[in-house]
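Task: fold both queries, return tokens.
Query 1:
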Amino acid sequence: MTTVCEKGKCTGCMECIDVCPKKAIKVIDSWMEYNAVIDSEKCIQCNACHSACQNNAEQVLTKPIYWKQGWAQDDCVRMRSSSGGVATAVERAFIKNGGIVCSCTFSFGKFEFDFAETEDEVCKFTGSKYVKSNPEGVYKKILEKLKLGRKVLFIGLPCQVSAVRHYTKNHQNLYTADLICHGTPSPQILDSFLFDYGIRLTEVQSIRFREKNNFKLEQNGKRFAVPITTDNYLMTFLNSTTYTENCYQCQYAKIERSGDITLGDSWGSELEKSTQDKGISLVLCQNEKGKELIDQADLTLVDVDLKKAIESNHQLYQPSQKPKQREVFFKELKKGYGFKKAVKRCYPKKYLKNIVKTVLYNMKFIGGGRTTIK
């Protein structure tokens, strides 16, 4: 098997697919890692894929010029968002000023990139996506819009932002926002989690990984909700079990960033609890384009304790650490035992704790809703 970069290091950015003139590349998702595989029969040895791959060259990253924490001034935007709604406020302002926004959206099992040209359209981008998305084909579309003189704001993971900048040669009309990223699992992991509830990802119309306190989705008109404190998918995500191999050696897990601005959760905030409960975003600005994005948006921004912000977001100084249970977890999944049994085998105490929490939630002793489809 001939791969574009070293085996296990592929980020799944898909830029190599977009640059290949012969469509000779296929990215293989094997649950634990992605690999960009070259079809030797189609390959013409042009080396375009190797040149495009971010793992084959040192990336240009920039240290922030200032840090803030804050939220969207529109309370509805803030409450619908996973944190403070800053991304939505920035998107709306960018469109209001004549630009186009490109970010990740979800529809019937696919996490792909789409464009928004009206303020109402940006709602499809709202919310964190705790899964690997697929940017295949979007690079060409972005470049086409840039060449037509349109300003484009791309919001994505640091590796995706780096790929967009490379593909477009960091076009003067390109604006970028990278997201502080723990790591991302294959969509197959999410499908396995949902399967235990009798749900197939391809049948899901909408999904919200973290709508303040719940994991929510809609399938065939039925709604499903799990409190995040009892959510095994989120538990394995937050303890770094389910990420693809490349995430544990991520070159973007540092203070220097790939985007004009960086957005994330303001963990470790010293603001009062009532303010934190509504959602607070961490905002890093790297350059003049970043200042333009922030200044034109309807935001409330306040100072942030830099030391606490870094300590509370380990991805700003090192990649996520691979837990020792990861290998066993994936072996259990691949045996077909199911997500719940894999969690029970690898994290028995946490699994039992989540069962108790679920019972208490359903009995409404600690607030919250049902964990079954209504």
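Query 1 returned. Query 2:
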Amino acid sequence: MTGPASATLPDGFAVRLDPACLRLGPRHLLGGSPTRLLTLSSAAVGLIDGTGTVTVSDAASAGLARRLLDSGVANPVPVAHGSTGEITVVVPVRDHQAGIDRLLGVLRGVPVVVVDDGSTVPIRVPDDPAVRLVRLAQNRGPAHARNRGAALVDTELVAFLDADTVPRPGWAALLSGRFADPAVAVAAPRIVGLANAPWTRPVARYAGLHSSLDLGPCARDARPGSPIAYVPSAAMLCRRRAFEAVGGFDPNLRVAEDVDLCWRLVGAGWTVRYDPAARVAHDHRTTVRALLNRRRYYGTGAAELARRHGTHAAPVVTAIPSALAAICVLSGTRTGAAGAAVTYAWMFARLRSRLDGVPHAGAAAGRLVGRAAWFGVHQGFAAMLRHYWPAAAAAALLSRRFRRRLLIAAVVEPVLSWVSAVRREPDAPHPDPVTWAVLHRLDDLAYGFGVWQGAVRCREFGALRPAITR
């Protein structure tokens, strides 16, 4: 048994309905990922206060809070644990003395295990009883290094921080509060750019707003197929018992080891939480070459994930009606537009029927169809320009009509991405839309190249196959 021994929430634990959750009358909640409809009893409705919060005080409130959490329609109310005495930090490092010096300066007084993963020039640490140094004779990769460090930890919680990170004040206290839920195995912060980054560089501005490590401002559970599928190992806090129960990181993986760990934990019944209230800064790549090489490298891990986790690693996850409608829209023809309209009308009627008896059923069905339409078309554009760009480029050479569609997608998609990023972080430095569009396209090309590179090398093409759901 590798899952949690208990899932019962303690008294005082509180959850609050997610802002994206729709309340359809007093007894119905629509939300989560995948989207689901929850019907509450009259007693359960009485446990939700005016702010959408449920505070655990007995078995009934504990059961309701757990149901809301597991359905993805609610998130834990942030509460700082107030103590970091049960945490040991493990830092894998290779050839980054400056990063270690900077990080240890921030972690003074906290137990730290530094694992030198075969550095060319051996890493040095200060003469501090709280800091332990482990040297590996040869480079085995960050997964192996983290496991070696974690094996020396005896505290309840173990934090993994990369040498190019700098935790913000209060990060550990905020994250440790998440472990009041006995089902939580991992809590992870939001990873943001360093305050002293060279923001005058367009690449630095792009990386600061479009980092693959920054999972955004919304707290969520990380699980396959959801908006947040995993949390990065550059900064995460783990329940040591859960980490050991699933065997830690897979030492055979040099990339995507964090995705693999999260999915194995979720598969074993544990919860992985993302909490953007806690923040850790990261020294992002600020040159085009470094940024694109890192994106390509991340892409190479998709094939191994597909081999281990099947359709969880699929680049596109869609239901047949949504796929048909998106294809019709992307065709750009009158026939396609008519086909999309018919398909969306059928989807609306089907959802409206399933919501029969629920207040505001028509409005809810319309909202769900609109969301599905937007997501389906956007997912199609993104996949065509990212995972499938070699095939899309070949098709563009053969078809003038497709070439025009591809060009429109290549321009419109990054502009929408730029608008979304600026609205999300209006005070952050950001590049102009043209620079953003160019870097965004190069970013996708690099990642997609890495996916194909990994697939060919591993002879595993699951990361390029769409997953069709009901």
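Both queries returned. Flag for query 2: The longest strand covers residues 271-282.
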